[in-house]
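ok so heres the complex, three chains, lmk if somethin looks off
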Amino acid sequence: MPELPEIESLRQKLEPQLIGATIGKVTLRRKDLRFPIPKALVRDLSGATILRLWRRSKYLLLDTDFAKTWIVHLGMSGRFFFANPDLPIDKHDHVLVNCQDDRQLRFRDPRRFGMMDWLDTKDLLSQKWFAHLGPEPLEDEFSADYLYKVCQTRRTPIKSLLMNAEVVVGVGNIYANESLFFARLHPLTLSCDLSFADIQRLCAQIKNILNHSIQVGGSSIRDYVDANSQPGLYQLSFSVYGRDGQPCFECRTPIESMQLAGRSSFYCTKCQILRNAV
DNA sequence: AAATGAACCTGTTTGC
DNA sequence: TGCAAACAGGTTCATT
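and the predicted structre for the whole thing:
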């Protein structure tokens, strides 16, 4: 599912319901997701109060009054949502967390690419999952100046560069495809061949598209739902993602697709002209 | 060093 | 209809 807009939408929905909440019983129905779930998380989360709910990259961060932060990553197919007590347990409901009211926060993840961790809140962002991450795309630190400098030092297709979390976090396959379409750049264009004007357009479009998607609750293709099990709406705005063979909204040329670094890539051959490539 | 590709796992869709 | 292959929003690790 989840790229930055989905996680941010989820965070915004969870925040008013979880800030100040004290956690009750925590039930593990599986001891590992992508990685083992720390025993200390299960032991200490119960009884803790949530003080702050924030986000870094696609990681959801829940600070507690234990001076520990509960870290949740949804991987590809994860859901993190409130369930009424009468909702049957799904075979992929791996973690159940009782809250103060009778609702239960559930972590459901069929593919188990998600993860949870429990780390010291102090200096959290310098710890393992976060130490080598690039800037947040919606912060000023992610600027055309910054991106241009990075592009100049690498020789890789621009789409691969955008999806590299050491360069910028939160831009996954959907938003990389969409941003490149609006910036009129072909996914295969080598980063070092882009002009500063190209990068200015690209940087601006990434921010526009991510902000727009957050406003409408992110994209739901199959798995993603928010804290209240509601889907996002941004998939209704896709210009190229998944539109293989359908006419470009700008020029009516059929959208093409290819595999790039193992990911489906969608583009318009007329609007996104390939000047240089590998 | 940097870039590419495979692996992790299960469910759904596609194609023969 | 049935079965197998391909594919899926992410990230890490091994290999060039």
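quick notes: The mean pLDDT of chain A is 95. thats all i got rn
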